[in-house]
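Dear support,

Our group has been running a series of protein-ligand predictions, and this particular one with NDP is the one our PI (initials K.S.) wants archived with full inputs and outputs. We had some confusion internally about which version of the output was final, so please treat the block below as the authoritative record. The input we submitted was:
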Amino acid sequence: MTAAQPKASHHINGQYREDASGRSFESIYPATGEVNARLHSATPAVIEQAVAAAKAAQPAWARLKGVERGRILLRTAQILRERNEEISRIETLDTGKAIQETLVADAASAADALEYFGGLAGAITGEHVDLGGDFVYTRREPLGICAGIGAWNYPVQIAAWKSAPALACGNAFIFKPSEVTPLTALMLAEAFKDAGLPDGLFNVVQGFGDVGAVLASHPDIAKVSLTGSVPTGAKVLAAAAQTIKAVTMELGGKSPILVFDDADIESAIGGAMLGNFYSTGQICSNGTRVFVQRGVHDRFLERLKTRTEAIRLGDPLDPDTHLGPMVSKAQRDKVLGYIETGKSEGARLVTGGGVPEMQGFEKGAWIQPTVFAGVTDEMTIAREEIFGPVMSVLSFDDEDEVIGRANDTQFGLAAGVFTADLTRAHRVIAKLDAGTTWINTYNLTPVEAPFGGVKQSGIGRENSRAAIEHYTRLKSVYVATGPVDSPY
Ligand code: NDP
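Confirmed final output from the archive:
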């Protein structure tokens, strides 16, 4: 077993909690198949403890001045930065992602969110509306208890992207990580505790989908924010409907990257590679349909193949390794199935497509970064979210054609355009059905920018000032300045 066993499965009311009667499960190091830790899913009693703790703590937290709440979030961010190496190591053990990535993109991104919303906490205000004597003012009030349900690709980042705005706004928070990656949310709970967050305001309950379902339908929980797949999103929405909860849904995608003839080709290739292979392809906003204009198509493919074959797979804990394994063998096998479907439907395999030989890591969930060319719009690999390192390259002739094809999907999470023509860049971006877009880069998600999808990719936005609206409710207060004018 690797040295990653937490003190207990859950973190409730500022304390580690165990309830061994819950279904047991393991965190596995995907590079070797070794067990990182053994945990238990939350029983109904554990979930009720978390809800009770949150309920007891939230009113006093909401009464604090925003800057006082913000100060604690800022301290938490500082602690995460001090513990970055330790958290990154555990994140690598839990997810298999290369330490080169986790050191910069996981706890660091969580700290960014805590700093941003910590700074914003004192600036959450309503407005004043003058009615020529009488007036209305609005109050931005917290919702109460908010729940977060996370996917396995960015465990600590997802926990912080949701809890930082929720806490800044005066809510209490209960987080359920994916059972595949349960570890670092507990480390975030420790950081909150050490930063002085009052007990009960940030709770972690472990478990499977059934635990998420209890949170999504719980009458005392005012809001649920999910990061997950579209089918899970539909279930959580249905569960939330029972008590008319507020929801934020960060769901899957099949996003397009458009590369025009005049683009800086090396940058476009770099963007497409980052947008398909980073985190071994397990990123919701990945640009998995790469449309390349006919004039540069062959040169693009040739350089893409060379650069893809230079990617270093290896020991995830070695800082020189670019890519680790996928999160699990089940997920890897699902992706291999898509690769077989791609071949059988007539796509041309340019590189990758199989399981690499990894000396010393024979039991890991490895997969080669894979590029298909000659992909057409109807192929399964161009329509379904694969969630692995599989890039589909499609060719196109003109702007209107490619916009129509890019939008022909039920998803709408992200999109990117590579071109040297600025007027075209803005014109095309405006016509793409996507919530998060880039011009001449891909997959950068700073906390300052709203993040989220349209169509079946989601509801609501994370990050930026926009997140404040999703963790507060607006009360309007009409104030009369004279006598009531009544006919009765
Ligand atoms: P899933 O949809 O399988 O699971 C997401 C979370 O929901 C998990 O914690 C899961 O628990 C839980 N869950 C499952 N069923 C239910 C239910 N009925 N009620 C409540 N909760 C439930 O997603 P993955 O973990 O497989 O993550 C990959 C997906 O997430 C991809 O589709 C990806 O695009 C999307 N994603 C979206 C992002 C975004 O911001 N838009 C970012 C990252 C990923 P359990 O793990 O036990 O099944």
